[in-house]
Fold:
Amino acid sequence: MTPRKRNWLQRMFGNPEQNSSHRSGESQPAHPGVHNEETGTPPEPDHLGDPHPVFTELTMRQAMAMEEQLRRSLEERGFAVEFEDYSVKFARSENQTRTMGLDNLPRLLAQLDDFDAEMPETVDEFVGNLVAAMDSPRLPDAEFYAAMRVRLAPMDQKGNEDFGKDSPLRPFSEDAFIRLVLDTEQSIQSLTTPALEDRGPVEDLYRMGYRNLWQELVDSDMSFSEYAPNKDNPDEKCWLLEGTNFFIGSAPLFLEELFERNAPHVDRSNGLIFAMPFRHVTIAREVTNGSDLMNSIGLMASLAAELYTTQPGAVSPRLHLMHMGEVETFTNVVWGQGNSRQAEIHIKPNAYLMGRISDGLDDGPEGPEGPVL
Structure:
């Protein structure tokens, strides 16, 4: 590879010697509407039809109606309620305060055909399922083991819990972790260390969770289809794993096996690239080379960011490389300030991916005209 082509690749993707691991002091992406020191507090809209500064998927009027219905549904069930930006605290006593994140509910409500007519019932059902799961009695061991799953969760849901031998959490990537959960009729409950007491060794519980997740994915309505929106370049493509099941966003835990089952002709020997933007979708493709790989990475990065911002159950908008038993995150997303949904997508492949991209580029020393990501 000539020095001039290497310079073009550096302009396109950044320094190939830099990896994607987070460095101390590196700024993190700010989610639209989040109040922080860098972006400042978004100004309050003057009109009820303007986007809400926190729940940007809804207008001011819709967000106020959602909060009022949440308060009503919780108070009818005997809870005191307090709202805090992206969450609501509720308690029946001072010693039993719980926090419910509101990341998913506004996105769910934004998809309703008739917000005013459907919102009250949707919110009340949401609260009812949550409270029913909280108040459910301790399950017998057999039912508990059958309901166990592992799933991928965004790192901002980790809280103060640590990874460890007896922890229900395991590391996965820079932006996501593996968590033991309980899949009940009412909801998917995140399991805590106290909830695992007297249930047996945690390693055995993980084996059950993985086995149950595999069966969940195999038995689900998950489709495995090729996505190639550019008719002029059919090799700019990826695979979409999607369906109604809440665990399809955790498919990267079995990505090799799912490719073998659904697309055995795909050559996975050079690795796989994937993203899990939200709970119902995983995006993936095999590592090839040249402009096909480069353009497909751009396609996947844009698609993942778009799905992440518009769908409930968000996991991560970032791309990952699975190669030689390792998972490495190699993109980042920096969101626009305030109510803007615009984002800058930063792509920094490691040396291996840079080599695969440069292999097969024969467009001259300057390289082809690439998209600005």
About this structure: Residues 1-45, 364-373 have pLDDT under 50 and may be disordered. The longest helix spans residues 115-135.
